[in-house]
Specification:
- This protein has three domains: about 1-40 and about 60-125, Pelota, domain A (SH3 type barrels); about 130-245, eRF1 domain 2 (Nucleotidyltransferase, domain 5, 2-Layer Sandwich), CATH 3.30.420.60; about 250-340, 2-Layer Sandwich (60s Ribosomal Protein L30, Chain: A), CATH 3.30.1330.30.
- It is of the alpha+beta class.
- α1 packs antiparallel against α2 and α8 packs parallel to α12.
- A seven-stranded antiparallel sheet has the order 1-2-7-3-4-5-6. The chain has a five-stranded mixed sheet with strand order 10-9-8-13-14, with helices on both faces. A four-stranded mixed sheet has the order 15-18-16-17, sandwiched between helices.
- It is flat.
- The protein has twelve helices and 18 strands.
- The mean pLDDT is about 85.
- About 40% of the residues are buried.
């Protein structure tokens, strides 16, 4: 994300969306009542003297929308901002939807919370952080997925045609299988690569890639997992395997912290979860790390608790609802805390 103008006093920020992760950050920032300006298309107003009603041509125009609803479509790669037109060349007061995607400029005017400003600052600072690409593979199937700020995004799957001990007549040769996988990988804006799986296919792909596509595979990490597919990717993420790549990733951080919270719960240790228990822990200044799901942070459900925890020096981590750790935290009431000391 590139911030072109920032004025928290007036509440107006002008920015350019540069990655899919930026759309996720904006989804967590924009809320009902905000004013959003962007270039869009809308049909021209019908002429008052027209003999019969005709649909006007769609034309580009800059509109401001008073937000009523925001939708994040991670697989369609756009953000929908729906509301009423407040400023523009026509149709003031009518409903309109802005479809925001990568490489677009927009302006947001709102009352910014401290958490929202932190999200925006982090989005700007991590703009150049490379994605991690996973290839989870066995003899029968491979999937390509990418680690993004909002979670793991599935890219594509490739089937080898091999099933069990037998090859069908349509089974691909190993080099054909590998080439198809690598083609998808290369076309997906690849970053650092982790190849994983339970068998020997991962080593075969790694060797083939290093021999023919050293530019992409020389730094690849090969990791054994008990599962393949998306389950294998989640397994690797939870284990923290991948050295510096996963250590630095946002999803890796969120996953490890939720796993730590669950471990503390399991041994009746340093934990609190649910709004009432976490509030009691904050009152006792016992919170070391506060975990809140992104949907509850976006809806400001725990805003008072978050502000109190920050003032007391607790670490505040918003956990994305789009990966397993977020779903686990949601089951605990959408809020939890790792404590400095155990409460009586």
């Amino acid at each position: 994300m590139r911030i072109n103008h920032k004025d928290y006093k007036t509440g107006q920020i002008k920015l350019r969306v540069q990655t899919l992760d930026d759309l996720w950050h904006l989804y967590n920032i924009i809320e009902p009542g905000d004013l959003v300006f962007a270039l869009t298309t809308r049909r021209e107003e019908a002429r008052a003297d027209a003999v019969r009603a005709e649909r006007g041509e769609k034309k580009k125009m800059r509109l401001s929308i008073r937000v009523e609803k925001v939708e994040f479509h991670e697989f369609a790669d756009w953000l929908r901002v729906h509301g009423t037109i407040e400023d523009g060349p026509q149709d003031i007061g009518s409903y309109h939807t802005l479809n925001i995607t990568v490489d677009e400029n927009m302006t947001i005017q709102k009352v910014w919370s401290a958490h929202q400003m932190d999200v925006l600052d982090r989005a700007e600072k991590t703009m150049e952080r490379p994605l991690v690409t996973f290839i989870a593979i066995d003899d029968e199937e491979a999937i390509v997925a990418q680690l993004r700020e909002y979670g793991i995004k599935f890219i594509a799957s490739v089937v080898s045609g091999k099933s069990g001990k037998f090859y069908s007549t349509k089974a691909k040769r190993p080099d054909e299988y590998f080439e198809e996988i690598i083609g998808i990988f290369k076309a997906s804006a690849p970053g650092p690569l982790i190849i994983l799986g339970p068998g020997f296919a991962k080593e075969g792909l790694s060797k083939y890639g290093r021999d023919k596509y050293s530019k992409f595979f020389d730094e690849a990490q090969v990791v054994s997992s008990g599962q393949t597919g998306m389950a294998g990717v989640q397994e690797i993420l939870k284990m923290g395997i991948g050295s510096k790549i996963l250590e630095d990733s946002r999803v890796g951080l969120e996953t490890r912290l939720v796993e730590q919270l669950l471990a503390e719960i399991g041994k009746n240790g340093l934990f609190a979860y649910g709004k009432a228990d976490v509030q009691n822990a904050i009152n006792a200044n016992a919170v070391e790390t506060l975990l809140v799901t992104s949907n509850s942070a976006r809806e400001r459900i725990f805003e008072k608790i978050m502000e109190e925890a920050s003032k007391l020096g607790a670490n505040l981590v918003v956990v994305s609802e789009h990966h397993d750790a977020g779903k686990q935290l949601d089951a605990l009431g959408s809020i939890g805390a790792i404590l400095r000391y155990k409460l009586g």
